[in-house]
Structure prediction request, 138 residues.
Amino acid sequence: MNILELAAKLDDYSGALGQSVEKLRIEQDRGALHQDEQMDLLADLRQAFETRMIRPWRTKALGAGAVAVAMLALAGFLPSYLPHAGLGRVAALGLAMLATLLAAFDLWTIRKRHMQMDPWFSRAETAVRKSGTLFDVS
Prediction:
């Protein structure tokens, strides 16, 4: 994935990331590309990645974990004198297990996305620090 594809994937409705990449492309053509501007764009890309690709899954994982805890509490505090209390406990434990699996899937998705993008960001930072450009990273 190159810088243009990543910016297009992470860009919001304003198109600010795409405009920043185009600005850097113009500066590169003029020979006035600075390391600080490239590092700023990398920081913006990393923040956009966290906001658009990681945070929604993190919120889903927290919600599923809260549901799992609530179901476990329900199963533990369900009065035994109620009719079908045993069935209610089994149902609550089943829902807790399902919510735990959903939270685990969400956390796995977060980890997978980090594992896909962290090497790219590391290569990009290394390339910029070694007087390369973001456009050299693929």
